[in-house]
Structures are given as structure tokens and as C-alpha cells.
Amino acid sequence: MNNKYVINIGRQLGSGGREIGAKLAAQLHIDFYDKELINIASKESGLCKEFFEKADEKTSQTIFGGLFGMRFPFINDGSIPNNNCLSNDALFKIQSDVIRELAEKKSCLFVGRCADYILRDHPRCVNIFISASKEERIKRLCKEKGINTEKAEDLIEKTDRERAAYYNYYSYKVWGAAATYHLCIDSSSLGIDETVAFIKQFIEKKLGI
């Protein structure tokens, strides 16, 4: 019997989604992947990680022109693709393959990057979306990034817009909509640790672990 499973977490900026995911993975004793996927995708594809960082959770566009000539190699071994063009769609495909390969090998938790859609055919998955009140999100960002309220609000608006556009574009579903996930939860209602405990209990019941 295949007991491997995956947890996929979507999150609003400032909701504590990454922290919740990391704590949840630790408690479930499974591997955690967020920006770590960038390093893996870079290593496996031979492309420098700056390409993946620039395209991270952003919609399709040609990025070759904007990156060419910057102070890092286009490709780790120094070669350049024949068509001199690398789109976010191509990077999404590479990262998607990495996510599928990891999920096939072991139980793991992914944060963002359309992992729930990429792994939609996985027999044992739980898809979760974490939100929080605007006040809590602003407070968290101000503390974590050392910015003022105005900058935090601007960052929240910009990042949420990009994440929604990215998710909606690649998944053909709606980012943050209840029907898209198995569980949606407001982390500001229970706090980080209690939210982790609640989600863990939900996962255990849903998957029978």
C-alpha cells in the first residue's frame, strides 16, 4: 500500500503560511518545500536560480530580454538555448516536474507554486489555504521586514495580486476561493501554533494517518 501523501498550502502574504507549513511538516515528519524548490529546479535544469527567482509565482512572460547581460550566467554551464528565449511557462514546466518527482518519492509539504494543481491527480493530498486579517498581516510584515504600515499595505496588495494571477493562470481555478481547497482557515483567529494543531488534526482525519 502506498502511504505517501502531500500537503499543499496556498497563503496570503503575511498570514504566516510559510511558518505554519514549516511547523506542520516538522510535526508530521515530512519534508518541507517553499523557495527550496528554486535551488532544486536550478540544479536539475542547469539554469541559474535567478531565472526561477524572477519568475517565482508570476504569470507568463518572456524574461530573456530583461535578464540578459546581468552579472550572472544565463545557464550554469555557460550555454544559451537555441531560441534565445526563456518564458515563465518553461520555468513553470521545469518546477512542476520537480514537484511531481518529489511527491512520487516521499511524503512532503509544498507552499505555493500551484502545487495543488500540479499534484491534482495524487491519490493522497490535502489542499489548504491560509488567510489572516489585514491588521495581523500588516503587523507581521512590519515586524518581519522592518517596514512601515504604508509599505506593508502596498506589498500585500502587490504580492496577493501576483499570486492570484499566477495561480489563476496556470490552474484555471480561483486563488483563495473556498471551492478550490479542502480547508480554508484564518490564522489570526487561532494564532500560529493553534492553527498548526487544527490543520494537523484535519490532515490526520482526512488521510487516516
Automatic annotation (TrEMBL):
InterPro entries: P-loop_NTPase (IPR027417). One of its GO terms (molecular function) is kinase activity. SUPFAM superfamilies: P-loop containing nucleoside triphosphate hydrolases. It holds the Pfam family Cytidylate_kin2. Keywords: Kinase, Transferase. This is Cytidylate kinase-like family protein. It comes from Bacteroides luti.
